[in-house]
């Protein structure tokens, strides 16, 4: 039996960050990770370059049953704090778009940085170490049985992530542990995930797989402007991944196919300039050609635009501005970047991430009901929650 001050279950972004934050204050800290290496989701993120934060991160970029919960941690550990650490380790980075910061070289550098910080702070990291059972032994004492032995700790941090991308080792262990200790869970589902189409809707788009175009997509009051990609199963691309976190089966979903432009003005200008042009050729000036052709095969009369009546032209503009999409589902956890829902934040302290039910028990990162937008926001939540927790356990 090894005695510890802090045991952290999960060697991902939040777990590693919490480990060295706590260990810097002289605490005995161990991270246990069931996979054969830590930081697997970090390594695959951002196409292998890790979109490690977003300079514009605020509480407004997160979805939660309590939208105020994440404010405290995010305010105390900002993107600039993490950027300082990245720069201190000499990791070159760049802004891609919309405040998204990526490594110039490889996401491996972020994992190495976190491990180097753990080593410098004397936080131990154990891989291929699965938790078999956790028992509470009185006030702030936990006995954790693992495949590499048993630990007694006065603070237990659950940083196990969510259900997304099971091929990378994701499991529901954190949720099961939360239930064991009497915590409530908000329903979980895949987020930041491609949408699927079925039946006639899928047939109309299937052979357009690979076509991409900028759109503004809207659902349930949320709106995102970015690229959309048509796939052989449905729709993907940044705009679709973003809106997927707000969409559920049966919800209305619309696309503005000419974002930032007045569709009626565009069509009227084209009719004035090219009255004899067929509608599909007119649309091909502002949309991908194959997509424009499909619109005129299914939804719009492919007539010379001069033959369009004013009413028909307004109807065409309305279609382009609010093009309806009937999604049947999502690609699920297999390709989802995050898991929505999780440990109910009403049962956690927003300043320490400690359980209100079980003193000494903390939940951080994706296992908690806080989910960020696409673009580095989820990593920023991991860093901020881990920092808040790592500093809090020192005061126990």
Automatic annotation (TrEMBL):
Gene3D superfamilies on file: FAD/NAD(P)-binding domain, HI0933 insert domain-like, Translation factors
Listed cofactors: FAD
PANTHER family noted in UniProt: OS12G0638800 PROTEIN
InterPro entries registered for this protein in UniProt: BaiN-like, BaiN-like_dom_sf, FAD/NAD-bd_sf, RsdA/BaiN/AoA(So)-like_dom, RsdA/BaiN/AoA(So)_Rossmann
Protein name, per record: NAD(P)/FAD-dependent oxidoreductase
UniProt cross-references to Pfam families, sorted A to Z: HI0933_like, HI0933_like_1st
Organism: Cognatilysobacter lacus
NCBIfam families reported for this sequence: aminoacetone oxidase family FAD-binding enzyme
Domain RsdA/BaiN/AoA(So)-like Rossmann fold-like stretches: 5-391
Domain RsdA/BaiN/AoA(So)-like insert: 189-338
UniProt keywords, alphabetically: FAD, Flavoprotein
Domain of life the protein comes from: Bacteria
């Amino acid at each position: 039996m090894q005695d510890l001050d802090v045991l952290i279950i999960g060697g991902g972004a939040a777990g590693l960050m919490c480990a060295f934050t706590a260990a810097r204050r002289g605490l005995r800290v161990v991270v246990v990770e069931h996979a054969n290496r830590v930081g697997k989701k970090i390594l695959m993120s951002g196409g292998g370059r890790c979109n490690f934060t977003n300079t514009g991160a605020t509480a407004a970029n997160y979805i939660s049953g309590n939208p105020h919960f994440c404010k405290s941690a995010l305010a105390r550990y900002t993107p600039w704090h993490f950027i300082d650490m990245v720069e201190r380790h000499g990791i070159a980075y760049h802004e891609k778009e919309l405040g998204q910061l990526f490594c110039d070289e490889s996401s491996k550098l972020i994992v190495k940085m976190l491990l180097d910080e753990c080593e410098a702070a004397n936080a131990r990291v154990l891989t291929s170490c699965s938790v078999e059972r956790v028992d509470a032994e009185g006030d702030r004492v936990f006995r954790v049985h693992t495949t590499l032995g048993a630990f007694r700790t006065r603070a237990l941090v659950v940083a196990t992530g969510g259900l997304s991308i099971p091929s990378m080792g994701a499991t529901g262990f954190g949720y099961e542990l939360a239930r064991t200790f009497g915590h409530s869970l908000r329903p979980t589902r895949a987020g930041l995930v491609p949408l699927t189409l079925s039946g006639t809707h899928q047939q109309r788009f299937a052979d357009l797989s690979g076509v991409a175009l900028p759109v503004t997509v809207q659902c349930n009051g949320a709106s995102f402007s970015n690229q959309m990609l048509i796939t052989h199963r449905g729709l993907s691309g940044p705009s679709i991944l973003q809106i997927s976190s707000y969409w559920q089966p049966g919800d209305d979903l619309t696309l503005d196919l000419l974002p930032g432009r007045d569709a009626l003005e565009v069509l009227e200008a084209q009719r004035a300039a090219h009255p004899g042009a067929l509608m599909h050729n007119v649309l091909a000036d502002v949309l991908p050609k194959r997509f424009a052709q499909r619109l005129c095969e299914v939804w719009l009369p492919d007539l010379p635009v001069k033959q369009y009546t004013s009413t028909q032209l307004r109807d065409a503009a309305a279609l382009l501005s609010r093009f309806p999409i009937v999604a049947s589902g999502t690609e699920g956890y297999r390709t989802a970047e995050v898991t929505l829902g999780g440990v109910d934040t009403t049962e956690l302290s927003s300043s320490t991430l400690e359980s209100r039910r079980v003193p000494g028990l903390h939940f951080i990162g994706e296992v908690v009901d806080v989910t960020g937008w696409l673009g580095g926001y989820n990593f920023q939540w991991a860093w901020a929650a881990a920092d808040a927790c790592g500093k809090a356990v020192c005061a126990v």
